[in-house]
Amino acid sequence: MKLPKELYNGVIIFIGIGLYFILMEILGLADLYYLRLFNVLFVFYGTNRTLKMNYEEGKTVFTSNATSALLTSLIGVFLSVIGLITYSYIQGGDAYLQSLSKTFLFGGSPSIMTYSISLLFEGIVSAVIISFMLMLYWNNRLVSDNQ
Predict the structure, then answer these.
(1) What is the residue extent of each domain of the chain?
(2) Residues 10-65: pLDDT tens digits?
(3) By the number of CB atoms within 10 A of the CB, which of 56, 84, 111, 129 ranks highest?
(4) How many CA atoms lie within 13 A of 34 on its CB side?
C-alpha cells in the first residue's frame, strides 16, 4: 500500500522537527529560543517536496495543489504537537514544561495543554503562510516555463 504523498511528506516534517529538537536538547541548546525558529525549514522542505511531486505528475490546478500543500504542512504540525505533548509527559510533565516556558514566549506557568494549543495555533498559521508562499513560487515558475 502506497501512502499519499501528503501523509508521507507530513511525516518527514514531523521526523525532521523531532530530530532537530532532540539534537538541540542533547547539545544543550534547547534554551536558545531563536534556534527554535529554524523548525520552519522542515515545514518548507516537506511542503515544497509535495508540490514538486504534484507538478512532476502533471497536476497544475492551483486549488488542488494548494490543498495538497496545506494538508502536508498541517499533518507535520499536528504530528509535531502530539510529539511535543508525548515528549513533555515522558520528561516529567509540567516540571519539564516550566524549563521550556522560561526561555520561550510564555509568562507564568502554562500547562502542557495550554502550551501545546498555543503552539498548535502558531503552527497552523505558519502552515498556511508557508503553503501559500510556496504556491506563489510554484505557480510563477510554472507560468514562466510555459512562455
Answers:
(1) 5-146
(2) 999 999 999 999 998 899 887 777 777 888 999 999 999 999 999 999 888 889 99
(3) 84
(4) 0
